[in-house]
Give the backbone structure.
Amino acid sequence: MKLELRGITKRFGALTANDHIDLTVEPGEIHCLLGENGAGKSTLMNVLYGLYQADEGEIVLDDVVQHFAGPGDAMNAGIGMVHQHFMLIPVFTVAENVMLGHEKTGFAGRLDLAAARKQVREISERFGFDVDPDALVDDLPVGVQQRVEIIKALSRDAKVLVFDEPTAVLTPQETDELMEIMRLLKERGTSIVFITHKLREVREVADRITVIRLGKVVGEASPTATNAELASLMVGRSVELTVQKDPATLGASALQVENLSVIDARGQVVVNDVTFDVKAGEILAIAGVQGNGQTELTEALMGLQDRVTGTVSLDGRPLAGLSTRKVLDAGVGFVPEDRKEDGLVGEFTISENLMLDRSEGRPFVKGGSLQLSYLSTFAEEKSREFDVRSQGITTEVGRLSGGNQQKVVLARELSRELRLFVAAQPTRGIDVGSIEFVHKRIVATRDEGIPVIVVSTELDEVVALADRIAVMYRGGIVGIVPGNTSRDVLGLMMAGEIPAGIELEGSAA
Amino acid sequence: MSENVSTNNLASSAGLPPTEHNHPDSDSGLARVLVKSWKAPIAFGIFALGAIILFVVFGRDGDSTFRLSTDSDLIQLPEVVLPTRGTGLVISFVLVLLALYSVWLVSRARKVRIWLMAVFAVLFLIAFLAWASAGQTLPVPGLLIGTVSLSVPLIFGALGGVISERVGVVNVAIEAQLLGGAFVSAVVASVTGNPFVGLVGAIVAGVLVSFVLAAFSIKYLVDQVIVGVVLNVLVTGLTSFLYSQVLTNNAAVLNSPPRFDRWDIPLLSEIPVIGPTLFRQTVIVYLMYIAVAVVFYGLFKTRWGLRVRAVGEHPQAADTVGIKVNRTRFWTVSLAGAIAGLGGAYFTLGSVGAFNKEMTAGMGYIALAAVIFGRWDPIRATLAALLFGFASNLQNVLGVIGSPVPSEFMLMLPYVVTIFAVAGLVGRVRGPAASGKPYIGS
């Protein structure tokens, strides 16, 4: 099926998210939509899927103009979508999720689950998936959940399949498998729109590439273009693809974590007997697919988890078992992975957010009252230093872009006297300019002689920043390897395997 | 501290296959340790101690008689006579043993199963009944029949709550729906002289209350709990006003509804104990049995139920497969109101026979507790409602036979049971994920 978007424009108030976008996807091609976070890719696809109504322009399928009032219409017209955040109901089984919305029923309105199971098995077989129709979605690994999404779309005879940032949650190996699936779908005649900001993936599968910047189509590119060409097209200027950093000057071992385990409320060992150390002036990156215990590990360091066993010491002083307040006072800076949920109070101003974890006393508070003049001087200074772009320090943080929000968090944490800096997913969902800035600040922090832990699911980021890399899988550390370890090896380790011939730290000593 | 962690297999399980992987709801591949919960042994210990103090130290002499049949029964069961002090002594001893057994279980990192709690509770109850009715005769069928009667509005209300929460709208307005149903059914049945028309009136009243709840919470995104509470106050005020201004002056025309007659179901009603309890009731009670079954079947076996649950769990996912989230919510909440309204009719057409000011007396809130205690499941919520009904009726029966417990304390009983049940036994449970959250489409 041939899909054409003609002059699609979508405005949210004063913001034009999509500005006269034209896009043509030929039958049986993989068309990449490349653009930064916030460039308007997802908005465009939500318009296509009927979730948003376009202010101008039209959607044409096989030369017929379509009017989608909702996702139901789009699906009936043959458009399927694999969402970035899976649209699956966690407490339902695979079969129930697949049948939802077009259920077959038998006597007395009884759901025909057998038919749904059969359909799941049929489609799984066709594409070589191994999916149990009776498994609860909640129990499935994310890679399999994504396949359930694909099955869901295919069960409705989707002719155009939209993948919205599908690789964000996958291991490199799972990503390769997904690429295989995309090629297979293409061979069967499905048109694919593949939305991403990762250059390597684009060049691997795309037949054609359309680049979007600030809501506008800025050009087409062929898959043979170099990374640098694609990146400059995407960002609008030439971009440093690697982080400039000098070799680390290592100091003494500063943070020592021994046999740390975290048990969650259900009794699962989410962090399992983890031992590592970080030296002063070193970046230890913790790599791994989302949900392998990284979140709980950083929270345990910060005193945010109950049921922690093992020891943590910073510069010789014990850190485990302290309250979060005491951990902060010990000089630990923390960038949480979800800045909107844990890092900032969206309804507070920039200056209020800058003093969130320093409301205990001087210089921000004297005798129980806020020192507002000091705060505004401080906030002005930090906004300038960290290049927070806003209308002023009294702007609500919730109204800033992701990149500027992250700069506020960074400014708050780095303006204290630090002895350890923990950054979890420091560049998730922010624009390339901000990513460059955040990376520079992290390296600068290291160069001041502060031990740094960076938790990231993005292999690019891990490789760019790390002096050493610890790979986590199912709550444990698979191994700690030098910063120059190849991606293939890291990819295997992220799936829990240790490739032969790889020297792990500790095993050699 | 009632929880700690057994760490014995922590170190050994590093990198090895999961040690305790028989947990049914997990396939995450993580090792597991059992988080020891001392809740049950502590509760058992307290109750066993209470049993010793009450039934042994302050034990009463005489015989307790349990009557198992009513006079009209075809098959007459003999009365059971127990020596009060002896019964208390034996049961207290067994309770202490059970408490020790639970301590042993938890110390060995095993779970205290639900059946053990049930056995413990039943034994304690028997001992308590024997103690309270020393030298008296306790009519067991009466106790049970009253339980069902008092539970009817609770069960209807809880069903309304379950449906509504399953679709993602917290239904605090059950009280208003019950009261509205009671009022309208009384007036309609009085005017028409037909209780069945009254039932229809009750349904309409419940639906109207739901319309307000649905419109404000779904369309105008007002906080659902606040709308619910305001509706309760509003309907209470409105019915009280109309009652004192209109109904009392024209009681003969407007507030003397015909009541439903009792229908004995042939054969079934002759089963000892169960027959009189379940099958010598009015048509509203039989409707209730049907409602419980239909709601269960509807929620878990039909397309409607699948969609309702999808909307309550993850409305955005439901939206992306073409389900109209807010429309589904609106009509499901209305249905919930219809069912709760039906329960309101039981007050006027089933038991009392006339409308009274604030006659629901907080039953709607207890029904809400039953929804949570029943974990948003229609069958479990029904059982929870029966438990609360039993506690209410126990208070009545013990009041009649003259128990040594002060009546003020007995009045507290249903509410104490509610608090303990919801806070202590339920613990952390997961309701429908999107319950209480308005869905703002894109």
About this structure: The two ends of chain A are 60 Å apart (CA to CA). Chain A touches chain B through 52 residues (CB under 8 Å).
